[in-house]
Design brief:
14 strands, 8-stranded mixed β-sheet, 434 residues, 6-stranded mixed β-sheet, 2 domains, 20% strand, Creatine Kinase, Chain A, domain 2, alpha+beta, Ubiquitin-like (UB roll)
């Protein structure tokens, strides 16, 4: 077997020192996954041999530009202008320095690294989600602000085979031997029964330097949530979320299950989402959102106002496919520490984060909305209240005619899909495992 490479054996000009050190620690590394997240947060890319990695760091690797604009089923969305209509051009993709990680679930030593796509002139490709976020964060830096971010991911554990009607089905409890049928939100026994799974996810996170620190049983049979620690590097926080999702899916598969991050895999059960918690620190390290419940800070109002103002335009990212949900946002508003709204704020003496409930990959849109709001000094038009007037019953379907957001999501889904009926018709069933 060829000895594992050392940092000294790698071309320093080609590979970041942190990545070289990480690679050195993967004894006998044979293969490397090159990962390019698309607009839906799915990982596209290539698998190469270790011997080809130096060339990738030196020269990059070519991938179709349309990969950025694929829908959840993997079809090219021509409406984006990035697909076959313009020739489906290749673009150079280069490794993101410092993003190389181990693949601890692989039976053979293996590495993975995130890619960033360039434009035709060798600059950053404006449609690349990671680059969009990087540009937005640069505007925060110009204003002397630092986002402190924590990401939470909800998901279901399903059997790898659907039920007799083709629907995803909860796994059989490894301790009781019975299929999970009931909802026991935050039930500790569920965490104990699935300890082999949660322990394996925790181990995979440690091996990849993913700062996961909390797991809970959520509001449906087989539904769980894993939380990441707060980071003062928003870009790194989102990279961690990408790697966490991949680790959860891989561990589930190894244990005979399927992890689904789909927003609404079953209409009769709670939906899943991604929660983004954000505080903004000024140059002195003070949280500019910090304020009492009955007197929200102006900066907090401005940020929430921007989110509300831009919510409709962002729904194509937030909700590209129509679907109802429960215990999750169903109208565009904000409230103090309540769940049926898209934006929630928890006011404590020194910590007032804004919490966004949405499916990935919404973070570039969120931060752009906050930033543009701060520049325009736009205040929220909503009145904060802790008790919504009405809310859908748990498990109930919401009428499309009663919800402008649902109507807009449905229209967005049609615009986001291709014009071929056969592609659109398989959207829901084909994406359960995504």
């Amino acid at each position: 077997m060829r000895p594992s490479p050392t940092a000294d054996s790698l071309t320093v000009a080609a590979i970041a020192l942190d990545d070289a050190t990480t690679l050195e620690g993967i004894d006998g590394c044979e293969m490397v996954d090159l990962l390019l997240p698309d607009m839906n947060g799915l990982l596209r890319g290539k698998r190469i041999t270790r011997d080809a990695l130096d060339k990738v760091y030196n020269d990059g690797v070519c991938l179709p530009m349309s990969l950025i604009a694929t829908d959840i089923t993997g079809n090219t969305v021509e409406e984006t202008g990035l697909g076959y209509d313009i020739g489906d051009e290749d673009r150079i993709c280069r490794p993101v320095p410092g993003s190389l990680r181990n693949v601890p679930w692989s039976p053979r030593p293996m590495a993975q690294v995130l890619l960033s796509m360039e434009d035709a002139q060798g600059g950053t490709f404006e449609a690349n989600p990671r680059e969009v976020l990087q540009r937005v964060l640069a505007r925060y830096t110009e204003r002397g602000l630092t986002p402190v971010v924590a990401v939470e991911l909800e998901f279901y554990l399903f059997d790898q085979r659907p039920d007799s009607e083709g629907r995803p089905e909860a796994t059989i409890n490894p301790v009781t031997g019975l299929r999970n049928r009931s909802t026991q939100v935050y039930y500790m026994e569920d965490l104990n029964d699935y300890r082999n799974f949660t322990d394996a996810v925790a181990a995979a996170c440690r091996a990849q330097r993913i700062p996961a620190d909390t797991a809970v049983a959520e509001y449906a049979p087989g539904q769980f949530e894993v939380n990441l620690k707060h980071r003062d590097d928003a870009l790194q926080a989102c990279d961690d979320a990408v790697y966490l999702k991949r680790a959860i899916k891989a561990v589930a598969q190894q244990q005979g299950a399927m992890a689904s991050f789909m927003a609404k895999p079953r209409m009769d059960q709670a939906g899943s989402g991604m929660h983004i918690h954000v505080s903004l620190l000024d140059r002195d390290g003070r949280n500019i959102f910090a304020s009492p419940v009955d007197a929200p800070a102006d900066a907090l109002k401005h940020a929430i106002g921007g989110l509300q103002h831009n919510a409709k335009d962002c729904l194509l990212l937030f909700a590209p496919h129509a679907g109802a949900t429960t215990i999750a946002p169903w109208r565009c508003g904000y409230r103090i520490a309540t769940r049926p709204t898209r934006v929630s704020s928890i006011a404590l003496p020194a910590l007032t984060p804004i919490s966004i409930w949405s499916p990935p990959p919404c973070w570039p849109a969120c931060w752009k909305a906050w930033n543009s709001s701060a520049i325009r000094a736009r205040r929220s038009l909503a009145t904060p209240t802790n008790r919504p007037k009405t809310a859908p019953r748990s498990g109930a379907r919401q009428s499309a005619t009663s919800s402008p957001a649902t109507l807009f999501a449905a229209n967005s889904a049609r615009a986001f899909s291709t014009s071929t009926g056969s592609r659109s018709s398989r959207k829901c069933t084909a994406s359960t495992h995504r």
